[in-house]
Amino acid sequence: MESTVWPRIKSWYIRGVQVGGRDSDLRALFGSNDRGIQVEEQFTNRQEQWEAVTTALTEHARAVAAPGFDVEDLETPRDNVLVFHGVGGIGKSTLSRKVEAALAHDKHRPVQWGEPVRVNTRVLPVRIDLARSAGTDFERVILTLRLALAELGRPLPAFDLALRRYWDHVHPGEPLEDFLRRGGLGRRFGKAVPQQMQSALTDIAQAVLLPGTVGAVVGQITGTLVRALRDHRTSVRALAGCSRLADLLEAEPGPDTLSYYPHLLAWELARLPRGRAVLPVVLLDTFEDVGDRVHRDLERLLQRVVWLMPNAFFVITGRSRLQWAEEALHGQLDWTGPAAWPGLAVPDGPESAGSRGPARQILVGDFSAEDCDDYLARRLTRDGTPVMGPDVRAVITARSHGLPLHLDLAVQRFLAIRRTGRDPRPADLDLDFPALIIRTLSDLTPDERHVLRSVSLLDNFDVALASRAAGMTYESAALRMVERPFVRFDPHAVWPYHLHGVIRSTIRTAGDRADDRWSEHDWTRAATRSFYAIGERWAGAPDPDRELLVNCLRQGLRLARDFGLELGWLTDAAWSYVGDSVWEPLAPPAPDEPAPPTLRTAADALVETLSALARRQHEHRERTVTRLTVVVESGLLPAELRDMAVYYRAKAQRDLGRSRDSRDGMRLVAESGGRLAPAARRGLAHLARLTGDFPTALQTAGTLGWAGRHHRVLGDVWWVQGDMARAAEAYRAARDEAEEHGVAGERATAQAHRALTLAFADPAVARDELDLAHQLLVGLDLRATRLTAHIAALVRDAGTASAQIEGRARVLRAEAATAGIAAARPAVELALGFHHAVLADHPRLDVCLARLREAGRRGDYAYYGDIVCFMSGRPLPDDEPPRARWLDGPGPTRARWRALVTARRALYGGAS
């Protein structure tokens, strides 16, 4: 049974209570009466970590075997440590146990791992669990190291004498063998070590010519040996090579002195015969329980062990990275700084910006979605078939964010639900586990807990923002917290820190049963602090950029919505957002909220408004109108923000061809005199242009100024007159003015219209202008403008039979219909009309004109059919009234459009 449950391995370890691994298997095993369910320990992935172990261990063995390596050299930098750190429950202890087993015997190496360790010396793994639950103190650490080396089958006289002297002084009257037996340490080697120590003392007594019983005269042996060493007697030549032995034996025995004895172990290991040499690999698990960032007494002792045993290799697993390479710890630890621990230091310089961190400190990452599913599928099986269905596994995987502890807790809940007599459904596992909160908070100070809960409200943060959100006037707690493994670092983000997804979700949504849990008022106060701190960061930025604005808006909108806060700084930020016409995704729907959402506060209404504006680039314009109508009719927004909803609803109505509704909305906003009044007057000019009232549109353009985008309105008027040179110049001026004001969306829109204008006049020039338009659209979400650019490409290629114009036009018609942008469809037909006119393809011209007449029956763009007649040299229909008030009459306009067709025919060698 033992061989199947827990493999016997030739190594020594102290093992405490672990979450996950074998103990969690037993919980699962005893969680159900169904003996048909097979509960198997699963170990998924971690191949990268194993490769790090094998690589580092190989390098270490090579360094120890190199000529000139001196175990007594106390000044050479140490590179005999490998650290795995990560959030609680990520699988560090399981990794530690698996590494121990794989090093002890290759058959225990998981199948996912690659090659075994290949070194010339026998590897001896020694795993020590430092968890508080394991009751491991420093004395037990030293005893465990010695017990593991009992496998050598020989005394280690220098160390054994020092240890025996220490034991008799600190534990008078208590035999070491009895202590080992009572404490469980001697289960395997309890007799061997005392016997080897007795043998060592006997040999030393004989060497210094002391007669009698060794056990009764340890102090005398020590004194005599020290004198012999000082006098360089040949009888103690074997021990004289250890230059610091006499000093250690003279020092007063105690825990501090004990921490220097590993130097004697290292010396003894270094003088082993070649055939009996070993390379100890000491795995120190649960290192976070060694102490905290203030009390480092035990950490200092353990660091001495690592430094004084340069021929041993140490694999440390814990929640936090080691700080030994930081100069600031000088005085708290004996050896600090990057010169002492080069592998533990964070790389400096610009080349390290994308570095994953110190070479020997590795963050244990989350499982991938595939690994999570594989873990759950194999964890509980019946006759080799997964007990958990794929739908249940998918929900658990999504909730876990790759954290193995969450997977294990989900398995326990799955079994608990089965005990009620029903099969668990996906909804039963779509939750967070309060146990994760306790696990996360367990080793944090009260201040760090306060900061952690505060930043769980934020998508990302920096140290200053975390401190402000927590209401602290000092940053020390935040500085400590961001070093924790559940805080992730992204150097490219606006604020570089963010919480691990499952930790943040759990703290915010799971039932908090900690002693210092927050009330609802505590959460609201923290949200209010965070909200205003974010607003101050945006308003106080010397040169606030778009990324900062969007980041602040996303977080501020969520806080205001979820906690019912007043809009405050969000009003100005919202105007800045719409002013650039970029339309990044901004506000997700409220959690578990049906569509359309229920609007209760001004924050709800603003979230819905900005979300509708951003989503209109991906939704049908009818959907945009519906969403904004709900906002307008709610009456929750202040007047100036209500204008925003009314204006953009009017724009969407215009795109849909509902000109009357659009005109009413634009007029309402224009008459209000608010921030969007100039834009609304521009909207009225556009509506006049759509009906063919060009004089009114031209006259209005003169009153708009930059705020009303006057140059673009002029370009819109001139190009339909066939005056491409004047229109292109107007669009260039609009583009340059937008660039001066830093409005990326307007700049791209003006350039796309300029490309369309020049596509009629000169295909070669248009090609470069279109390239520029596409460059300016990178990173922008402007659906209508992209359609304009694609239509411009159609016009540019008009007259070439190989350009597949008809097929491309069908695609653009479909895109326009999907987006609900009615204005794009007549523009596509106009481009086709130009193409057919150049080719003198009269049957297709007839079809094109029929489509344009059908589209123009509602009044908008009716004059596009006239333009196609101008292009093809056809007369206007006698039975239809004039469709437009041309600026200089229909005759000159006809001549300009006909000239464009003639020029294109000449360019391509006739109507072919």
Q: Please, how many helices?
A: 42
Instruction: Quote the average pLDDT.
Output: 83
User: Distance N terminus to C terminus?
Assistant: 88 Å
Query: So what's the overall shape?
Result: elongated
Largest sheet, described in full? 6 strands, parallel
Which structural class should the secondary elements be placed in?
A: mainly alpha
Radius of gyration: 39 Å
Strand order of the largest sheet: 1-4-5-6-3-7
Proportion of residues in β-strands: 5-15%
Approximately how much helix is present in the residues?
A: 55-70%
Task: Return residue spans where pLDDT drops below 50 for at least 5 consecutive residues.
Answer: 1-24, 349-356
What is the domain tally? 5
The total strand number stands at: 11
Tell me what the structure shows:
The protein is mainly alpha-helical and 912 residues long. It folds into 5 domains: 2-42 and 366-431, no CATH class; 47-361, no CATH class; 441-687, no CATH class; 709-790; 798-912, no CATH class. Strands 1-4-5-6-3-7 form a 6-stranded parallel β-sheet, with helices on both faces. Strands 2-8-9 form a 3-stranded antiparallel β-sheet.
Write the layout of secondary structure elements.
Elements: H1 2-5, E1 12-14, H2 21-29, E2 38-39, H3 47-65, E3 81-85, H4 92-104, E4 122-129, H5 138-148, H6 157-170, H7 176-183, H8 186-189, H9 192-207, H10 218-230, H11 237-240, H12 245-250, H13 255-258, H14 262-270, E5 278-285, H15 297-308, E6 313-318, E7 361-363, H16 369-379, E8 380-382, E9 385-386, H17 390-400, H18 404-418, H19 434-441, H20 446-455, H21 463-469, H22 476-481, E10 487-489, E11 497-499, H23 501-509, H24 520-540, H25 546-563, H26 570-579, H27 602-615, H28 621-634, H29 639-655, H30 659-672, H31 677-690, H32 694-701, H33 710-720, H34 724-741, H35 744-761, H36 763-777, H37 783-797, H38 805-819, H39 824-839, H40 842-855, H41 863-872, H42 890-907
Parallel strand pairs: 1-4, 3-6, 3-7, 4-5, 5-6
Antiparallel strand pairs: 2-8, 8-9, 10-11
